């Protein structure tokens, strides 16, 4: 199946009470993990690419990998989407063949956000084939690209205003809207369990019936992954000071923070939220597995030295495939888990 935009995805999601997972891609292992999960769950999905990912990987490499992924999985509907685009990058991606773009003017005053989003929509909608546009109104906590979001104490103040949302969508003619309902980007979201503003979702949906909403900052930061990283990271660093500090602190390197509970994501998916963005949890899955694989590798070190001394062939394995392989398996498991929560498993057949 060729790449699709998000229009039918969101129509089906609204009708069926599920949401499409949007997963960030930066390299081959992330892409393969994501696509293997989509194949396993027979789920449509959005591959999203940030400006940082474009810079890191070079878009031509990413696009080449995505084309192979499409050819390998012809039954899976896939959209290629720009995450948190600025004006220039959004225009470039529309012209480059992205099927969907986000223009993020949420840090600007509303009048400028409306004017710029409208221009992007005009360009995207005149494109053949039609490119869908996601806009953002309201502000999230955490870090988006290089912009630091609102502080935790201010989150409430920057929730999306339902009247503004109605006006924004009508004037810009955007295809979906990312709303601030108390979620936050990154691994360090909340100290205690957050209460998402589901009432805002209901109020916005009442003013914009049948219009798709998007939830950013939706990673759950599962504790077991933080613990896994903490237990391997220090050992791997080889840094004596860090090791001592870690021992004193009970190994805590990454603080125990809380993400968006998975039940909350499931609940949002049954409402007007049609797209749920997840990046941090994939990073946690990939990194913790790599650290574990290195740990397993290094625990062979003594045996390796001994074998070397005895003139035998060393079995210390520094082959990158030995740690990137488990990393992409962990990404696959994480994405499959999210697809189950979002209720999107088995929905690829709606696009046949
Ligand atoms: O919200 C931002 C996404 O997690 C992308 O992050 O800019 O580091 O690629 P990035
Ligand atoms: P997380 O940092 O919670 O994964 O959110 C990702 C995101 O919103 C990308 O746009
Ligand atoms: Zn985001």
SSE topology:
Elements: H1 7-16, E1 20-24, H2 28-41, E2 45-50, H3 51-57, H4 59-72, E3 78-85, H5 87-96, E4 100-103, H6 110-126, E5 132-137, E6 143-144, E7 147-148, H7 162-172, E8 176-179, H8 198-207, E9 213-215, H9 223-237, H10 240-248, H11 262-270, E10 273-278, H12 280-298, H13 301-309, H14 321-342
Parallel strand pairs: 1-2, 1-10, 2-3, 3-4, 4-5, 5-8, 8-9, 9-10
Antiparallel strand pairs: 6-7
Helix pairs in contact: 2-4, 2-14, 3-4, 5-6, 6-7, 7-8, 9-12, 12-14
The site of glyceraldehyde-3-phosphate has 10 residues, from helix 3 and strand 3.
Structure explained in plain terms:
It is a single chain. The chain is of the alpha/beta class and 352 residues long. It contains 14 helices and 10 strands. It has an 8-stranded parallel barrel, surrounded by 9 helices. Strands 6-7 form a two-stranded antiparallel sheet. Helix 2 links the parallel strand 1 and strand 2 (45-50). It is globular, with a radius of gyration of 21 Å. The chain starts with 6 loop residues before the first helix and ends in a 10-residue tail after the last helix. The model has no long low-confidence stretch (mean pLDDT 89). The structure holds glyceraldehyde-3-phosphate, 1,3-dihydroxyacetonephosphate and zinc ion. Residues 84, 144, 185, 216-217, 277 line the site of zinc ion (ZN).
Low-confidence stretches: none
Distance between the termini: 9 Å
- Ligands (ions, cofactors included): glyceraldehyde-3-phosphate, 1,3-dihydroxyacetonephosphate, zinc ion
Output mean pLDDT: 89
Overall geometric form: globular
Strand neighbour order, sheet with most strands: 1-2-3-4-5-8-9-10
Query: What's the gyration radius in Å?
Result: 21 Å
Q: Helix share of residues?
A: 40-55%
Give the structural class: alpha/beta
| Proportion of residues in extended strands | 5-15%
Topology as a string of helices (H) and strands (E): HEHEHHEHEHEEEHEHEHHHEHHH
Tally of extended strands?
10
**Total helix count?**
14
For the biggest sheet, the summary is: 8 strands, parallel, barrel
């Amino acid at each position: 199946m060729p790449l699709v935009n998000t229009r039918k995805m969101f129509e089906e999601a609204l009708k069926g009470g599920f949401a499409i997972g949007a997963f960030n891609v930066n390299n081959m292992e992330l892409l393969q993990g994501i696509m293997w999960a989509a194949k396993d769950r027979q789920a449509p999905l959005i591959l999203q690419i940030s400006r940082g990912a474009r810079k890191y990987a070079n878009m031509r490499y990413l696009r080449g990998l995505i084309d192979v992924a499409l050819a390998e999985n012809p039954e899976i509907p896939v959209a290629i989407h720009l995450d948190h685009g600025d004006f220039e990058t959004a225009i470039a991606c529309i012209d480059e063949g992205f099927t969907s773009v986000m223009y993020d003017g949420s840090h600007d005053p509303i009048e400028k956000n409306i004017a710029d989003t409208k221009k992007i929509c005009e360009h995207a909608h005149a494109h053949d084939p039609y490119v869908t546009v996601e806009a953002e109104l309201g502000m999230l906590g955490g870090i988006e690209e290089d912009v630091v979001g609102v502080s935790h104490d201010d989150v409430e103040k920057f929730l999306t205003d339902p009247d503004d949302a109605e006006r924004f969508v009508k004037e810009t003619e955007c295809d979906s809207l990312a709303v601030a309902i108390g979620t936050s980007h990154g691994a360090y979201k909340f100290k205690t369990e957050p209460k998402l503003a589901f009432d805002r979702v209901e109020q916005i949906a009442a003013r914009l019936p049948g219009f798709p909403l998007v939830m950013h900052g939706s990673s759950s930061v599962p504790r077991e992954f933080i613990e896994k990283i903490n237990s391997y990271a220090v050992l791997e660093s080889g840094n004596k000071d860090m090791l001592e500090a870690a021992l004193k602190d009970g190994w805590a390197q990454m603080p125990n923070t809380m993400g968006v509970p998975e039940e909350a994501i499931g609940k949002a998916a049954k409402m007007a939220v049609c797209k749920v963005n997840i990046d941090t949890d994939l990073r946690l899955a990939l990194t913790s597995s790599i650290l574990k694989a290195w740990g397993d590798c290094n625990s062979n070190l003594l045996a390796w030295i001994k074998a070397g001394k005895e003139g035998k062939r060393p079995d210390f394995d520094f082959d990158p495939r030995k740690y990137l392989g488990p990393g992409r398996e962990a990404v696959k498991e994480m994405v499959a888990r999210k697809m189950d929560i979002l209720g999107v498993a088995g929905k690829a057949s709606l696009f046949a």
